[in-house]
Amino acid sequence: MSTDTKELLETRDNELKKVLQLKLLLDAMRLLDMGKNQSPEIKRALKLVSIGEFMRLGNDDGQQDYVLDLQEDKIAPALSYTDRKALRTSLKEKLQESLTPIAELGDQIREEFPEVFSKDVELNPGQKEIIRLEVEHRESLEKKGELLSRKCALLNDAAELKMGPHLVNELQLKQASAEVTQTKAELLCSCFMNEIASRTEHSVKAIKEGC
């Protein structure tokens, strides 16, 4: 794998992580319930988070229309320090509640299958041979595909080459047939003229003898 490809994959993975983190935070905030610690400002802010993705309607020209003229920069409430602290604490607890089972399951899997997650794992000869054969099989399939493509191209070329002489022979046959027909016509014409001449000669002799 080239360096550029590795960098692109790393960039993609980093951006995906950011998107997943943001989605995780938004999902947690939409389900957040602070109970008695929830002030009107916090309630309104959480409500905006819940409907935020539905506030804007995109147009074909790239402009945005806001549902009921709700614009985020004008309706976003200013939270006090106490509200922000309470919100962070509740959000942290909510994230821990959601992520702790996932982290515990990951730890359990790592304990049961350490060889799967070890970067320094040493493959035995049999595993190395399987990997080598798999790589060789993949390369053979790629080579086979290239050869099949080349075979198709050669078959097309051969078909075109075969059609060339075939068409020439067909034209020559048509020409020979036309020549035979012309020869037959000339022969018939010659026989007809000979018959006329013969009949004329006999007629002249008969007239002379009669006279």
UniProtKB/TrEMBL annotation:
Lineage: Eukaryota, Metazoa, Ecdysozoa, Arthropoda, Hexapoda
Top-level taxon in the UniProt lineage: Eukaryota
Official protein name in the record: Augmin complex subunit dgt2
